[in-house]
Each structure stands twice: as C-alpha cells, then as structure tokens.
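Case study B.
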Amino acid sequence: MEVTLLIQATDDSFRILEDARNQAKGLLDSARILEDARKQAKGLLDSTVGVTSETRQMEKQKIQTIFQGAQETKSGFQNFIVTFSLLFVFWVLLSGKFDMFHLTIGVICSIVVAHLTHDLLFANVRVGETMVIVRRFIIYIPWLIYQIIRANIYVACLALSPRMPIDPHVLRFRTKLESDISWVTLANSITLTPGTITMDIKDGEFFVHALDKRVADDLHAGEMEDRVAHIFMEADHIYIQDALDVARIYVELRKWV
Amino acid sequence: MIRSSEDIIIRTVSRVLVPFIQLFALYVIAHGHYSPGGGFQGGVILGASLVLLLITYGPRETRKHISEKSVTVFSSLGVLIYSGIGFICLLLLGNYLDYGKLSGLLHVAPAEARSLGILGIEIGVGITVMAIMFSIFFDISSGGKPPEDEKE
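Model:
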C-alpha cells in the first residue's frame, strides 16, 4: 500500500519535472517555470512521504501495543504448542506403549521439555508459517533422497573406474537464502549428497568441496537452493526489495530536486 | 573458558536437537524399570544436552535456561526424592526402599507399588545425575570463577 503510494508519487513528480522542462524550452522565464515545477514535485513527494509516515505513526501508536503484545504471546504459545506436539509424537514413536500411564508420563515430559526449550526449536520462525514449512519440508525429503541415490551411484562409478577420473576442487558461492535455518538445511543437504561437502558458511557465503566437475555443475545449477528457498518461503523477499528500491529512488530524487 | 561457537551449522543443529535429546533422556528415565536404561543413563543424556547448549551458546545463554542456583537445588532434590522414598518405606514398617509397603499409601496393588516406587527412584537419580554432570562441566569450563567475572 505505502509502496504503491510512493511509486505513484515519484512517477508523478518525474512527470511534472518532465512537463516543465518541455514547457520551458524556448521561453524567456524558463528558470521560473522550472523552479515552480521543482517546488510542486517536492511538495508532492513530501506530502506522500508525510502521509505514509503518518499512517505508519498511527499504526505504531494505535495498534502496536495491542498487536505486538498479542503477537508475542501468540507466537510464544504457538511455538509451545508446536514443540509440544512434535515432542509428543517423538515420545509415542520411542515408547510404543499406548496405556494410560505411559501416555500421561509422555504428556508431562513433553510439557516440561517444551516449556524449557520452545524458544530454541523455533527461534527465527515467523508467526503462522510453521505448518506450511513443515509440510514443504516433508515434500522436500523424497526429492533429496532421490538426489542422494543418484549421486551415490555416480560417485561409486567414479571410485570403481580404473582411471578414477576425479577432479576435486573447492567451490565458493554466495547464496540467496537469508535465515540460518535455511543455510543449515542447504549445507546439510549438500553434505548428505555424496561427492560434495560443505566446509564452512561465512555470512551467507558457502565453501563447498566437490569431487569432480559434474557434481560441481549440479550444485551451481542451484536447484537444491531454489527448493530450500521454497521451503522457507524466501522467494517472498522481492517485495521488500521493491520497497528498498523505491526508498533509494526517493532519496536520489530529493537530492536532484 | 568456553565461548559461544561461531559456526552457524553447529549453532542451528544443536538448537534444533536439544529438545529431542532432552525428551529422549526423559524417555530413558521413564522406561528404565523394564527396558534398558534408567535413572543414571537418562540423567547423563539430560546432562549432555545441557553441556551441548553450553559448548555451543556459551555460559551466558545457557544460564538463561538453567542457572547454577537451580542446578544446586536439583542435585539436592534428586537425593531427597531417593532417600525420601526409602524413608517412607521405613516409616511404613518395611525395609529401606521396600517399595511393596507403599501400596497402602498409593492405593494400588503391591506389584504396581513396586513399579511406581522404582520409577520415583529413577526420577530422583536422573535429576541428581543431570545436575551433577552439568555442574561439574560448568565449574571446570568456567575455571571456578564466579559468574560475574565471565566475559564473552
């Protein structure tokens, strides 16, 4: 909403300046017309930013206190519930006893552990997305297993062929993923796939050891990265990029106007 | 002196695994009276999960989850549970840790009272072992200095 307003405003002010420049061509008081247009464009931009920051202020003052409080308790409670259910499923898998006594102990233990660690398991997850992420992650696993089997056969062929045509080298690439959990998922997927090992992650830069060229090319194609980005919904950051771009254009324009 | 780990993989994986390690520890404790495991083993696993937190996140973060004071309380609490159950059996005119005598108190059959009594003992042992394991590691890693002196 605010972003579209800003885009509209920058568009309009650009048009006003353009018109003024066309108009001023060949006229005597061109300087005055240009000055007027500049003032107009500046006024438009300022008022738009005023409006957007005003609404933001209002939102902050009015809603923030209620909203944030609710959000925090909700996310904390939601984390607790999700952690509890995961742990309880894990308990039932381990225990395999379905009588009242053991299920009760399981519930108590799950509550205790969930209470102690619910801030650990879902430290950086945004609210309301946990179920989607879990579902997408489960869908991701068969694909990963298929990749692992394929890479296994390939590496076995490499190792068993008499000439052993390996060409080890270290790849270094910057990922588009943003959160630590997606970095780790990608890094562990790479390590699980035979032929490649993640050696280190430094500020979003991966250092990967690859056994030969084909394996490295597979990695460079970036399908795994795209899939991991899909799990953690990190293709959505385009909108944020839009807003940042508009803000930069606005700053430039202010200087220019 | 232990600092928090810089490696993002270690940090994240231990963050995700610690709840499951702790639940597994509680499972080992709770099923100790008729499957392999028991209070000591479960307590060690529980202590190990806290040690994992300590070596990845450093003492400051770990102290938010469990403090030295609560570790001291837990280590005594476990012994209290153990000896308490033993003494209750004595008071009920049995031998020390003679769980069968608890049946009157718990309103269950003597066999079931034995099972529950052993479970209580396992819990007591588990709590103490967890607390002692963790506090030994904590004390060695901090070099015996008081917590205020630690800078990360």
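The radius of gyration of chain B is 18 Å. The remaining cases will be described in the next quarterly update.
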